[in-house]
Design goal:
- The protein is of the alpha+beta class.
- The protein folds into 2 domains: 183 residues, no CATH class; 89 residues, Arc Repressor Mutant, subunit A, CATH 1.10.10.
- It is 45% helix and 11% strand.
- A 4-stranded mixed sheet has the order 3-6-5-4.
- The radius of gyration is 19 Å and the shape is globular.
- The relative contact order is 0.12.
């Protein structure tokens, strides 16, 4: 369970592209004391980029070959798919997958898992949110860091997703806004300093992300799930994207219609309907998404 590996920096535009491209060519790049200069960022930002590569499931640490001591950082299968199809992180499906990975990665992003799977606040301020996280950790018997650390982690999460209103006149070239704001999951009201949760737009959710989320959350390992349970299971698509049951069923029906026969099915009659997902590794769902929608980017 980790808090604060992001050095208080939300993901910024271009960061993951830079970091992923770097470790593709040099798995030991982040051991170089001058890696920040290579990335064109400050030293703490370079640490943050490394954290986000791991937390989002784009990279993983591996032992050096030939029995040498130490670890290197290499792209995961998802990272390799992104490099192949979406190296500049332009597509909403990529960001949805990274968001789902964060929610299902308590070792690196415990606050993300708690906020999207456990926290029930619909309208709240930052202080109330961080204090609720503290209470949750204390009541669950987990060793909690000091409140200041939790406040910084909560602030990073909220800054990552919240779209401020009213909008300010900002430079369109400004890269400080997190791309996770594209998901539309939070709104920040400047006048009241309050945040509001939003349901994700169903039309923006690629069909393959339904199966991807259930696989990453390991919810589908127990077989077919009742639709309501599939919607609200921890780490699943419904929780990650704050969908109500009706919206979740819309996603399921969309996937059933768009994907190959048998890939996603609703079984049973009204009142006893279950969700059937074709069993396959999570990365296969993302490869299917990219294959169906995009062509490979030339190296």
């Amino acid at each position: 369970m980790r808090f604060g590996g992001h050095e208080t920096f939300p993901v910024r535009e271009g960061w993951l592209h830079k970091g992923l491209s770097l470790i593709k060519d040099d798995p030991e790049a982040f051991k170089n004391p001058f890696v920040a200069d290579t990335l064109g960022v400050g030293r703490n930002m370079a640490k943050s980029i490394r954290h986000w590569l791991i937390a989002t499931g784009l990279a993983e640490t591996q032992s050096r070959q030939n029995g040498a001591k130490g670890k290197v950082l290499s792209p995961t299968r998802l990272g390799s798919l992104v490099l192949k199809y979406d190296p500049y992180f332009l597509h909403i499906g990529t960001w949805l997958a990274l968001h789902i990975n964060l929610v299902n990665n308590p070792d690196e992003a415990q606050t993300w898992k708690w906020f999207f799977s456990r926290y029930s606040g619909q309208r709240f301020d930052r202080i109330a949110c961080s204090e609720a996280l503290k209470r949750f950790l204390n009541s669950s018997g987990q060793r909690a860091p000091v409140l200041r650390t939790l406040q910084r982690d909560t602030a990073c999460l909220l800054s990552s997703y919240a779209v401020p209103l009213p909008n300010e006149n900002t430079d369109p070239e400004d890269a400080s806004d997190s791309p996770f704001r594209r998901l539309g999951l939070l709104t920040y009201f400047r006048d009241s300093h309050m945040y509001r949760r939003n349901e994700a737009e169903v039309s923006q959710i690629p069909a393959e992300l339904l199966g991807y989320a259930l696989c990453v959350s390991k919810a589908h390992s127990d077989g077919d799930l009742p639709l309501r349970e599939a919607c609200f299971v921890e780490g699943g698509l419904g929780r990650c994207l704050q969908l109500g049951l009706d919206a979740f069923i819309d996603v399921v029906e969309k996937a059933e219609a768009e994907l190959a026969a048998g890939t996603v099915r609703i079984l049973g009659s009204a009142g006893e309907r279950k969700l059937h997902i074709h069993p396959q590794p999570a990365a296969d769902w993302m490869e299917a998404y990219y294959d169906r929608n995009f062509t490979q980017v030339a190296a």
